[in-house]
Amino acid sequence: MADSQINIISWRRYLTRNLTVVPELLGLSHEFTFRNGQVKIELPSSDNLPKEITDAPIMESDDSLVTIKSYREEAGSKVPLEVSVKSLDVQVDLGELVTLPQEVLTRQPNPVDLLSKEQGTQLDNTINSHTYFADDAFDWWIRILRWKSGNGSIARPEIHGLHSGWGTHLLDSATKHRFWRSGITLNIYLGGAITLKIWQDVEATIKQGQESPVYVDLMFDGIEQLKVGNLQQSVVQLAVACEAFMRTRLMQNLPKGLPATIVKYIDEASISKVQDYFFKDTLDNEQKKVLKSINSRLHQLFNARNTILHSGRKTDLTSADCQQYVGATKKLIAI
Length: 335
Description:
Blueprint (H helix, E strand, L loop, with lengths): L2 E19 L7 E6 L2 E6 L23 E9 L2 E25 L15 H33 L19 E3 L6 E4 L14 H12 L6 H14 L3 H22 L7 H8 L3 H8 L6 H27 L7 H15 L2
Antiparallel strand pairs: 1-5, 2-3, 3-5, 4-5, 6-7
Protein backbone atom coordinates (compact mmCIF):
# COMPACT_ATOMS: atom_id res chain seq x y z
CA MET A 1 0.00 0.00 0.00
CA ALA A 2 1.56 3.28 -1.17
CA ASP A 3 2.02 6.16 1.25
CA SER A 4 1.25 9.78 0.50
CA GLN A 5 2.45 12.98 2.17
CA ILE A 6 -0.55 15.10 3.10
CA ASN A 7 -0.56 18.82 3.86
CA ILE A 8 -3.07 19.05 6.71
CA ILE A 9 -5.69 21.74 7.03
CA SER A 10 -8.69 21.58 9.38
CA TRP A 11 -12.33 22.63 9.16
CA ARG A 12 -14.63 23.55 12.03
CA ARG A 13 -18.13 25.09 12.12
CA TYR A 14 -19.29 27.64 14.70
CA LEU A 15 -22.76 28.81 15.66
CA THR A 16 -23.29 32.53 15.10
CA ARG A 17 -26.50 33.46 16.88
CA ASN A 18 -27.64 37.06 16.37
CA LEU A 19 -25.44 37.55 13.31
CA THR A 20 -27.29 39.42 10.57
CA VAL A 21 -25.63 40.47 7.31
CA VAL A 22 -26.63 42.13 4.07
CA PRO A 23 -26.98 39.55 1.27
CA GLU A 24 -23.96 40.95 -0.59
CA LEU A 25 -21.67 39.53 2.09
CA LEU A 26 -22.71 35.91 1.60
CA GLY A 27 -19.77 33.81 0.43
CA LEU A 28 -17.15 36.36 1.51
CA SER A 29 -14.30 35.44 3.82
CA HIS A 30 -11.55 36.88 5.97
CA GLU A 31 -8.13 35.27 5.57
CA PHE A 32 -5.39 36.19 8.01
CA THR A 33 -2.34 35.07 9.95
CA PHE A 34 -3.04 34.13 13.55
CA ARG A 35 -0.07 33.18 15.72
CA ASN A 36 1.81 30.57 13.70
CA GLY A 37 -1.01 29.59 11.34
CA GLN A 38 -3.25 30.74 8.52
CA VAL A 39 -6.97 31.11 9.14
CA LYS A 40 -9.92 31.49 6.79
CA ILE A 41 -13.33 32.44 8.20
CA GLU A 42 -16.04 32.14 5.57
CA LEU A 43 -19.71 33.09 5.48
CA PRO A 44 -22.17 30.66 3.85
CA SER A 45 -22.69 31.30 0.14
CA SER A 46 -25.85 32.70 -1.42
CA ASP A 47 -26.58 29.17 -2.65
CA ASN A 48 -27.90 28.51 0.85
CA LEU A 49 -30.70 31.08 0.50
CA PRO A 50 -34.17 29.57 0.09
CA LYS A 51 -35.33 29.41 -3.52
CA GLU A 52 -38.60 31.07 -2.61
CA ILE A 53 -39.12 33.74 0.04
CA THR A 54 -42.16 33.20 2.24
CA ASP A 55 -43.75 35.47 4.83
CA ALA A 56 -42.70 33.04 7.57
CA PRO A 57 -38.95 32.49 7.23
CA ILE A 58 -38.82 31.29 10.83
CA MET A 59 -40.48 28.10 9.64
CA GLU A 60 -37.49 27.15 7.52
CA SER A 61 -35.63 24.02 8.52
CA ASP A 62 -33.38 24.19 11.57
CA ASP A 63 -30.43 22.82 9.60
CA SER A 64 -30.36 25.74 7.15
CA LEU A 65 -27.22 27.87 7.37
CA VAL A 66 -29.03 31.13 6.64
CA THR A 67 -32.55 32.50 6.87
CA ILE A 68 -34.00 35.63 5.33
CA LYS A 69 -34.74 38.18 8.02
CA SER A 70 -36.30 40.91 5.89
CA TYR A 71 -37.04 41.61 2.25
CA ARG A 72 -38.55 44.21 -0.09
CA GLU A 73 -41.02 43.88 -2.93
CA GLU A 74 -39.53 44.75 -6.30
CA ALA A 75 -41.32 44.25 -9.63
CA GLY A 76 -43.45 41.52 -8.11
CA SER A 77 -40.49 39.70 -6.60
CA LYS A 78 -39.23 39.52 -3.02
CA VAL A 79 -35.62 40.69 -2.71
CA PRO A 80 -33.71 39.88 0.51
CA LEU A 81 -32.54 42.88 2.56
CA GLU A 82 -31.07 41.18 5.63
CA VAL A 83 -29.98 37.60 6.17
CA SER A 84 -29.55 35.81 9.49
CA VAL A 85 -26.39 33.68 9.47
CA LYS A 86 -26.77 30.68 11.75
CA SER A 87 -23.22 29.36 11.42
CA LEU A 88 -19.96 29.90 9.59
CA ASP A 89 -16.87 27.85 8.83
CA VAL A 90 -13.28 28.21 10.03
CA GLN A 91 -10.35 26.66 8.17
CA VAL A 92 -6.92 26.40 9.79
CA ASP A 93 -3.56 25.69 8.14
CA LEU A 94 -0.63 25.16 10.53
CA GLY A 95 1.74 24.02 7.78
CA GLU A 96 1.78 20.41 9.00
CA LEU A 97 2.69 17.42 6.87
CA VAL A 98 1.81 13.82 7.66
CA THR A 99 2.63 10.59 5.82
CA LEU A 100 -0.35 8.22 5.56
CA PRO A 101 -1.55 5.42 3.27
CA GLN A 102 -2.80 6.97 0.05
CA GLU A 103 -6.08 5.09 0.40
CA VAL A 104 -7.19 7.34 3.30
CA LEU A 105 -7.97 9.98 0.67
CA THR A 106 -10.59 7.72 -0.93
CA ARG A 107 -12.29 6.43 2.23
CA GLN A 108 -14.75 7.85 4.75
CA PRO A 109 -13.22 9.67 7.76
CA ASN A 110 -11.45 7.60 10.43
CA PRO A 111 -10.37 4.53 8.40
CA VAL A 112 -8.78 2.90 11.44
CA ASP A 113 -8.13 -0.34 9.58
CA LEU A 114 -5.56 1.45 7.41
CA LEU A 115 -3.59 3.08 10.22
CA SER A 116 -1.31 1.97 12.99
CA LYS A 117 -2.15 2.83 16.59
CA GLU A 118 0.64 5.40 16.58
CA GLN A 119 -0.71 7.07 13.44
CA GLY A 120 -4.20 7.23 14.95
CA THR A 121 -2.83 8.81 18.12
CA GLN A 122 -0.87 11.33 16.05
CA LEU A 123 -4.02 12.34 14.15
CA ASP A 124 -6.03 12.63 17.38
CA ASN A 125 -3.36 14.95 18.80
CA THR A 126 -3.42 16.99 15.60
CA ILE A 127 -7.21 17.26 15.79
CA ASN A 128 -6.97 18.53 19.36
CA SER A 129 -4.33 21.15 18.57
CA HIS A 130 -6.31 22.40 15.56
CA THR A 131 -9.50 22.55 17.62
CA TYR A 132 -7.92 24.71 20.33
CA PHE A 133 -6.27 26.88 17.68
CA ALA A 134 -9.53 27.37 15.74
CA ASP A 135 -11.42 28.20 18.95
CA ASP A 136 -8.88 30.90 19.83
CA ALA A 137 -8.83 32.32 16.31
CA PHE A 138 -12.61 32.46 16.10
CA ASP A 139 -12.87 34.08 19.54
CA TRP A 140 -10.32 36.74 18.50
CA TRP A 141 -12.17 37.40 15.23
CA ILE A 142 -15.68 37.49 16.69
CA ARG A 143 -14.64 40.01 19.36
CA ILE A 144 -13.39 42.32 16.61
CA LEU A 145 -16.66 41.86 14.69
CA ARG A 146 -18.68 42.73 17.83
CA TRP A 147 -16.48 45.78 18.44
CA LYS A 148 -16.68 47.16 14.91
CA SER A 149 -20.40 46.45 14.53
CA GLY A 150 -21.35 47.68 18.01
CA ASN A 151 -23.31 44.46 18.53
CA GLY A 152 -22.06 42.53 21.56
CA SER A 153 -24.66 39.78 21.23
CA ILE A 154 -23.20 38.18 18.08
CA ALA A 155 -22.31 34.50 18.59
CA ARG A 156 -23.17 34.57 22.28
CA PRO A 157 -24.35 31.36 23.97
CA GLU A 158 -28.12 31.07 24.13
CA ILE A 159 -28.92 31.96 27.75
CA HIS A 160 -32.42 32.57 29.05
CA GLY A 161 -33.38 34.85 31.91
CA LEU A 162 -35.69 34.05 34.82
CA HIS A 163 -38.92 35.37 33.36
CA SER A 164 -41.35 32.94 31.72
CA GLY A 165 -43.06 35.54 29.53
CA TRP A 166 -46.28 35.27 31.53
CA GLY A 167 -47.71 38.45 33.00
CA THR A 168 -48.44 39.07 36.69
CA HIS A 169 -51.92 37.99 37.91
CA LEU A 170 -54.08 39.27 40.77
CA LEU A 171 -56.09 36.55 42.55
CA ASP A 172 -58.77 36.33 45.19
CA SER A 173 -56.99 34.63 48.10
CA ALA A 174 -60.04 32.50 49.00
CA THR A 175 -61.10 31.22 45.57
CA LYS A 176 -57.79 31.72 43.76
CA HIS A 177 -59.79 33.28 40.93
CA ARG A 178 -57.63 35.41 38.68
CA PHE A 179 -59.47 38.68 38.12
CA TRP A 180 -56.72 40.93 36.71
CA ARG A 181 -53.49 40.45 34.82
CA SER A 182 -50.72 42.53 33.37
CA GLY A 183 -49.78 42.61 29.74
CA ILE A 184 -47.18 40.21 28.42
CA THR A 185 -43.77 41.76 27.86
CA LEU A 186 -41.45 40.34 25.24
CA ASN A 187 -37.83 41.47 25.28
CA ILE A 188 -36.38 41.28 21.78
CA TYR A 189 -32.77 42.30 21.33
CA LEU A 190 -31.96 43.47 17.83
CA GLY A 191 -28.67 44.44 16.27
CA GLY A 192 -28.12 46.04 12.89
CA ALA A 193 -26.97 44.04 9.90
CA ILE A 194 -23.27 43.75 9.10
CA THR A 195 -22.70 45.88 6.01
CA LEU A 196 -19.87 45.75 3.48
CA LYS A 197 -18.31 48.78 5.17
CA ILE A 198 -18.25 47.03 8.56
CA TRP A 199 -16.91 43.84 6.98
CA GLN A 200 -14.07 45.78 5.34
CA ASP A 201 -13.37 47.64 8.60
CA VAL A 202 -13.01 44.30 10.38
CA GLU A 203 -10.66 43.10 7.65
CA ALA A 204 -8.50 46.24 7.94
CA THR A 205 -8.36 45.86 11.73
CA ILE A 206 -7.23 42.25 11.37
CA LYS A 207 -4.49 43.17 8.88
CA GLN A 208 -3.21 45.80 11.32
CA GLY A 209 -2.94 43.14 14.00
CA GLN A 210 -5.32 44.94 16.35
CA GLU A 211 -7.68 43.25 18.75
CA SER A 212 -10.86 44.27 20.51
CA PRO A 213 -10.08 46.55 23.49
CA VAL A 214 -10.70 44.83 26.81
CA TYR A 215 -13.03 47.62 27.94
CA VAL A 216 -15.26 47.00 24.91
CA ASP A 217 -15.39 43.27 25.68
CA LEU A 218 -16.25 44.03 29.32
CA MET A 219 -18.97 46.49 28.33
CA PHE A 220 -20.59 43.90 26.07
CA ASP A 221 -20.29 41.28 28.85
CA GLY A 222 -22.05 43.67 31.24
CA ILE A 223 -24.86 44.24 28.76
CA GLU A 224 -25.34 40.49 28.26
CA GLN A 225 -25.45 39.94 32.04
CA LEU A 226 -28.17 42.57 32.31
CA LYS A 227 -30.24 40.87 29.61
CA VAL A 228 -30.53 37.73 31.74
CA GLY A 229 -31.12 39.58 35.01
CA ASN A 230 -27.66 39.24 36.58
CA LEU A 231 -27.63 42.83 37.84
CA GLN A 232 -24.66 42.62 40.19
CA GLN A 233 -22.42 40.94 37.62
CA SER A 234 -23.53 43.56 35.10
CA VAL A 235 -22.54 46.42 37.42
CA VAL A 236 -19.13 44.94 38.17
CA GLN A 237 -18.28 44.40 34.50
CA LEU A 238 -19.57 47.81 33.40
CA ALA A 239 -17.57 49.52 36.16
CA VAL A 240 -14.39 47.65 35.26
CA ALA A 241 -14.98 48.55 31.59
CA CYS A 242 -15.23 52.26 32.47
CA GLU A 243 -12.18 52.13 34.73
CA ALA A 244 -10.12 50.25 32.15
CA PHE A 245 -11.06 52.79 29.47
CA MET A 246 -10.17 55.81 31.58
CA ARG A 247 -6.89 54.37 32.81
CA THR A 248 -5.90 53.25 29.29
CA ARG A 249 -6.74 56.64 27.83
CA LEU A 250 -4.87 58.41 30.64
CA MET A 251 -1.68 56.34 30.37
CA GLN A 252 -1.63 56.75 26.57
CA ASN A 253 -1.76 60.54 26.94
CA LEU A 254 0.85 61.08 29.64
CA PRO A 255 3.63 63.45 28.53
CA LYS A 256 6.82 61.71 27.55
CA GLY A 257 9.71 61.99 29.95
CA LEU A 258 7.70 61.97 33.17
CA PRO A 259 9.67 60.55 36.11
CA ALA A 260 8.84 56.90 36.81
CA THR A 261 7.64 57.78 40.33
CA ILE A 262 4.99 60.16 38.94
CA VAL A 263 3.86 57.63 36.34
CA LYS A 264 3.54 55.01 39.09
CA TYR A 265 1.58 57.42 41.31
CA ILE A 266 -0.88 58.16 38.51
CA ASP A 267 -1.17 54.49 37.54
CA GLU A 268 -1.94 53.47 41.13
CA ALA A 269 -4.30 56.39 41.87
CA SER A 270 -7.86 55.56 42.92
CA ILE A 271 -10.48 55.63 40.19
CA SER A 272 -12.15 58.66 41.82
CA LYS A 273 -8.92 60.66 41.43
CA VAL A 274 -8.50 59.44 37.86
CA GLN A 275 -12.07 60.38 37.02
CA ASP A 276 -12.18 63.78 38.75
CA TYR A 277 -8.65 65.08 38.16
CA PHE A 278 -6.47 63.23 35.67
CA PHE A 279 -8.73 61.77 32.98
CA LYS A 280 -10.55 64.96 32.02
CA ASP A 281 -7.27 66.62 31.11
CA THR A 282 -6.94 64.16 28.20
CA LEU A 283 -10.21 65.41 26.66
CA ASP A 284 -11.10 68.28 24.35
CA ASN A 285 -13.92 70.70 25.16
CA GLU A 286 -16.67 68.67 23.49
CA GLN A 287 -15.52 65.48 25.18
CA LYS A 288 -15.46 67.26 28.54
CA LYS A 289 -19.13 68.19 28.01
CA VAL A 290 -19.96 64.52 27.46
CA LEU A 291 -18.04 63.51 30.57
CA LYS A 292 -19.80 66.19 32.63
CA SER A 293 -23.20 64.87 31.52
CA ILE A 294 -22.42 61.35 32.77
CA ASN A 295 -20.02 62.08 35.63
CA SER A 296 -22.55 61.63 38.45
CA ARG A 297 -23.81 58.40 36.90
CA LEU A 298 -20.25 57.08 36.70
CA HIS A 299 -19.73 57.88 40.39
CA GLN A 300 -22.90 55.93 41.17
CA LEU A 301 -21.66 53.01 39.08
CA PHE A 302 -18.29 52.88 40.83
CA ASN A 303 -19.97 53.17 44.26
CA ALA A 304 -22.34 50.32 43.38
CA ARG A 305 -19.39 48.22 42.21
CA ASN A 306 -17.52 48.90 45.46
CA THR A 307 -20.55 48.01 47.57
CA ILE A 308 -20.93 44.69 45.77
CA LEU A 309 -17.25 43.77 46.05
CA HIS A 310 -16.80 44.94 49.64
CA SER A 311 -20.03 43.67 51.18
CA GLY A 312 -20.90 40.91 48.74
CA ARG A 313 -24.30 42.30 47.77
CA LYS A 314 -26.18 45.46 46.82
CA THR A 315 -29.84 44.88 47.65
CA ASP A 316 -31.33 48.09 46.22
CA LEU A 317 -29.96 47.60 42.71
CA THR A 318 -32.61 47.74 39.97
CA SER A 319 -32.73 46.96 36.27
CA ALA A 320 -33.45 50.63 35.60
CA ASP A 321 -30.23 51.56 37.42
CA CYS A 322 -28.26 49.16 35.26
CA GLN A 323 -29.81 50.55 32.08
CA GLN A 324 -28.57 53.98 33.14
CA TYR A 325 -25.11 52.54 33.79
CA VAL A 326 -25.06 50.94 30.33
CA GLY A 327 -25.91 54.29 28.77
CA ALA A 328 -23.16 56.08 30.69
CA THR A 329 -20.62 53.38 29.79
CA LYS A 330 -21.45 53.60 26.08
CA LYS A 331 -21.12 57.38 26.10
CA LEU A 332 -17.80 57.21 27.94
CA ILE A 333 -16.23 54.65 25.61
CA ALA A 334 -17.49 56.59 22.58
CA ILE A 335 -15.53 59.69 23.67
